[in-house]
Amino acid sequence: MSTRLRDYDYVLPRELIAEHPLERRQDSRMMILHRVEQKIEHRQFRELRTLLQPGDLLVLNDTRVLAARRFSDDGAIEFLFLERLGPTHWKCMVTPGRKMRVGATTTIDYVCLRVEEITAEGERIVRFDKDLDVYAGGSMPLPPYLDRLSDETDSGRYQTVFAREPGAVAAPTAGLHFTSEILSEIPHTFVTLHVGPGTFLPVRTENIVEHRMHTEPFSISPEAADKINHAQRIVAVGTTAMRVLEAATLNSKPITRQVKPQSGETDLFIYPPFTFRIVDALLTNFHLPRSTLLMLVSAFAGREFILRAYEEAVRDRYRFYSYGDCMLIL
Predict the structure, then answer these.
(1) 61 neighbors 44 (Cβ within 8 angstroms)
(2) What are the distances in angstroms from CA 284 to CA 45, 138, 256, 318, 327?
(3) pLDDT given at position 121
(4) How crowded is the C-beta side of 193, counted as CA atoms within 13 Å?
(5) In 3D, which of 68, 202, 72 has the Cα closest to residue 133?
(6) CATH code of the region 69-137
(7) In Å, how far from its chain's centre is CA 298?
(8) Where in the chain is the domain with CATH 3.40.1780.10?
(9) Is the pLDDT of residue 253 over 70?
(10) Distance (Å, whole) CA 175 – CA 62
(11) What is the mean pLDDT of residues 132-149?
């Protein structure tokens, strides 16, 4: 199992990045990876129910993406608002950072804000002159690689149909393929992990063990814990659901396959080798080269098998990333 960053790389033609969603959520392609047989199949997402077994339980992340992207009134500064710290204080990311040093000011909706602090991670702590609901005039914080502003379509499509707990600045994209009708036919439950900006941050250390994840809040309700503990097989929908489940088992003393109702934060970084204690199958999208998410799926299915699957996906012209096709790892 490699811990070298360069071993989690692949070449992706730019035209395979899905810049916009398909007209219908359920029309995505789905690559099936059979881990034991090391076999790859090509199916459609709408066939998902036929690939599941009696006793399977889908676990989905019901976080709701906030309209957290704002621009200064002059259009010179882009803000991604991450957390409200008080009536007038916020934590945010800014671009370009050089224009927003400590003491710098600008306005949003004609309300002045001032940078009071820069965190170790480069985030800004800002104070408004008066209370302002930054989300009221915000837009969807699309991933940087899409390199475009969000539009009316994104307001609905960069959100799962089951999103209900506001708090994320990125969508749990494996869930974007589901319609309410498809979900109603499959046993499922929800956990919550509010996806933070760390999901987009590159790994900058050649030894991936040295990388540190941002902490993200999560919760598991008593109802969800009961369903999870009585399921025969757990199918995590997305890497965020997987991180919640595996973090929850690690929080148990002694560590078991059972999960307890809980709320907390996790900075769990899953990379090879990793012992999975609860997740049996994973539905996920295709991830960026050298990303923590590619390392997670490599830990689950094997790095060589994953990279071979990605090569095949490129050859077969799969659509990649948030609005792209998906992969079911069994």
Answers:
(1) no
(2) 11, 28, 25, 14, 5
(3) 83
(4) 32
(5) 68
(6) 2.40.10.240
(7) 16
(8) 5-65+143-329
(9) no
(10) 9
(11) 92
Which stretches of 178-284 are DSSP H helices? 180-184, 222-230, 239-250
Asked if 289 and 8 touch (Cβ cutoff 8 Å), the reply is yes
Residues of the chain with CATH 2.40.10.240: 69-137
Q: How far apart are CA 227 and CA 17, in angstroms?
A: 36
The tokens describing 1, both together, are 């199992």
| DSSP β-ladder status, 69-71 and 78-84 | antiparallel
Mean pLDDT of the chain: 95
* Phi-psi domain of 131 (left: phi exceeds 0; alpha: psi -120 through 50; beta: other): beta
Which residues in 131-162 are b (16+ Cβ under 10 Å) and which e? ebebeeebbbbbbeebeeebeeebeebbbbbb
Give the pLDDT confidence of 150-169 residue by residue, as tens digits: 999 999 999 999 999 999 99
- At 73-113, the pLDDT tens digits run 999 999 999 999 999 999 999 999 999 999 999 999 999 99
Structural contact between residues 179 and 26, judged by C-beta atoms closer than 8 angstroms: yes
| Token couple for 307 | 């990279």
Q: Is the pLDDT of residue 200 over 80?
A: no
Q: If phi over 0 gives left and psi between -120 and 50 gives alpha, with beta otherwise, what is residue 147?
A: left
Which tens digits make up the pLDDT trace of 261-308?
999 999 999 999 999 999 999 999 999 999 999 999 999 999 999 999
* Predicted pLDDT at 255: 67
Q: Which CATH architecture has domain 5-65+143-329?
A: 3-Layer(aba) Sandwich (3.40)
C-alpha closest to that of 239 among 173, 179, 191: 173
